[in-house]
Amino acid sequence: MIKAVWFQLHWLLGITAGIVLAIVGVTGGMLSFEDKILDALNPGVRTVTERPGGLLAPDALLARVRANAPERTVTAVTVSTDPARAARVVLAPLPGQGGGPRGETRYVDPYDGAMLGDIRGLDFFRTTMQIHRWLAAGDVGKQIVGASTVALIVLSLTGLYLRWPRRMLNWRAWFALDIAHRGRSFLWELHSVIGTWVLPFYLLAALTGLYWSYDWYRSALFDLTGTPRPQQMRPGGPPPQAAQGGPGQGAPGPAAGSPGQPAQAGQGGRPQGGQSGRPQGAPRAALDIAALWPVFLKESGGFSTATLRLPQGNAQSLTISYQPHDPAHERANNTLVLDAAGTVREHRRYDDLPAGQKLMGSIFVLHSGAFFGLPGLILMMLASLVMPLFAITGWMLYLDRRKKKAQARAAARALPATPIAAAGTDAPVLVAFASQTGTAERLAWQSAGALQAAGLPVTVAPLASLAPDAIAAARRALFVVSTFGEGEAPDAARGFARRMAAAGRGLDHLDYGLLALGDRAYPHFCGFGQSLDAWLRTHGATPLFDRIEVDGEDPGALRHWQAQLGALSGLGTLPDWVAPRYEHWRLLARRCLNPGSSGLPTFHVALAPADGPLPDWRAGDIVEIGPRNGPAAVEAVLARHGLDGAAAVVAAGQTVPLRDVLARSLLPAATVTGGAQALADSLAPLPHREYSIASIPADGRLELVIRQTRNADSSLGIGSGWLTAHATEGETIDLRIRANPGFHGPDAARPMILIGNGTGLAGLRAHLKARIHGGGDRNWLLFGERNAAHDFYFRDEITAWQSAGALARLDLAFSRDQNARIYVQDRLRAAGADVAAWLKDGAAIYVCGSLKGMAPAVDQVLTDLIGAPAVEALAEERRYCRDVY
Q1: Where residue 481 sits, what CATH number does that domain have?
Q2: CDD domains, from UniProt (predicted)?
Q3: How many domains does the chain have?
């Protein structure tokens, strides 16, 4: 609950203050190298060419300037020991003319005192600074920037809390940016990982930037550090430009204001003790700069830049702010005050200040990053310039979340109030979800809608609202859960995850299915889904089918989930939520593998692309077939409606014959009035069918093993009927290959135990072919069917492998060949000692075939042989994999 509150606060501040922070951040970054840029834009003005004869002394320079501008009063002059740096003077404003209260700053040639030209680019940086400080909108803008700066502090701290990784001491969890992510995960990666990189800079910039935003904050800093307040500080305004590169110097980072150093920290300003006792208006003698300058040189021990603030009014003292040759930072100025006789009235050195006053004297350079030298300035600039990244990614994540939440609400509203068909006294199917962004919630409601439309009562609830005993009370449950970050539960489900870890056994009567959402780019792909699956199994629950893992929103995996929903509902014909993008293949050949069998006919089907080369796939992958209705069924519908199958209709934006649309659609049970187009518009497409691939690309064709199915009226099933009876050789088949990484095989050097029955031999055959092709011969096949005489599929091939040593062991279970029924799980139990020995050698166990009967029986035998924890450990190590249906 606390995390949810912080999350709401984070996104609320992000979408309100994010745009302002982006503007202030970019302008701050642009100001980082203002002096360097102005130098580059103004050669011959801010910089000069070194000349023989040396630099003019300050007194000679002042005399030249006064001679060149006799009508102006010079109030300050800045000189440098750098022979390529122009001098700078401040001229008092003329009565009735502009120039500001501080006067006009001009650059002069330090070799002859000539006035140099105007500075190009200065207006741009002044405008940029105004936007940076107050959005160029006066006091209102200043308040907006100040509030946004406070928001930045809260955003930084809440962001740190929200992304706190499970493995706190793992630096990669904090700082590693993985650009392999896609979609929302990629946006989150940019937002969170780069946000962690720049978080210290944002906190520093914000905490120092508030110095210029709020008087109370500035006063509190002075009080906390024990620093006397400067005599004059214009709120939000710049300090005197003492010994700095030029006027309008800015600061990076998302905060208002500019340097503003107090005088006692060496930033110039009029010294408090610098007044003489001469009555106001009395005549005074001009200070002898030529005599005082050697005193400064001796007292200072040398300098890099120095600003002489010439006395005004009745003052008879000279204030010189200067930087030594190796200052602590660019604002670490010292201040020397001399009276007319050359006596030192005051000498304040930055290095001698108390720590608190040093801190206050370093506010600007901390804010800009220059406190840490050039690397700090560059890093702060980069951090400031990437501020829009967080506004953009934050908004995109927010809008994506809103969209998915809206989709989840729409899916919930679409759930029928009551089942279409009576469900009798069946207990409702519990559909529980754990969602971070809304995707899992939407899929849960869609799943519930599909089941309820098929006549099953359902109950939908967030996982966070369920106690373990509430789950134990259900008879059947579907879980749709996402994984957040490094294998963690979504925020709302963290409480359930803690309760889950502490719960005892008590789920023996629960049958369940689980859809796990994740991102394969993360190391702990679908980590929470895997943890939930393991918890359900170890507490006695029985899976209805193997866990389905979805990478992003992989439509193939979602269609696989829909296929399982269809089997659960008993209909088997639920329309696809996302239509597959099929490719055109050709039916090359098919043959019956079990002629004379007491079971249904099983066919070996071979296909190849209609155009282009054979694509690549791996053993364990699956094909999705777009089936078609048989010609007789299509003609029966046409006859019932009295329509011509060749009539042109528009379907999916294309004009096609009505007969083709009927062939690819769920056929209507009732008559549709209105003609051919009305009938076409009423049709829903046939759902796909899935089959394990029984070959490898080296075979030169894609092969399947398909058993015919029969409906209650003895008609053939849609998918098996199309591939084994209705389609003719050479006919086009709609097909796509779907990767099934959860059933990809191990390295050929690892021993492998392959267990299956019936058409499950298809997936096992592909693995055996791949291993033999790769040189792996430690293979053990356990296969079961009805009769050896008729149902030993690929007998010649398998026995040839055994004879050649490519199949180290073969155990067969033909259940009808003896009085006592013997199944593949019985052969496995009888070979328990050998199974344990193979597992000790690192063997992997792969199971393919019937979900009902064989697969759970094999699972139970393994549990009896090695124990449930060991079975779970094998599954976690991907040494126990299943493809069951």
Answers
A1: 3.40.50.360
A2: SiR_like1
A3: 3
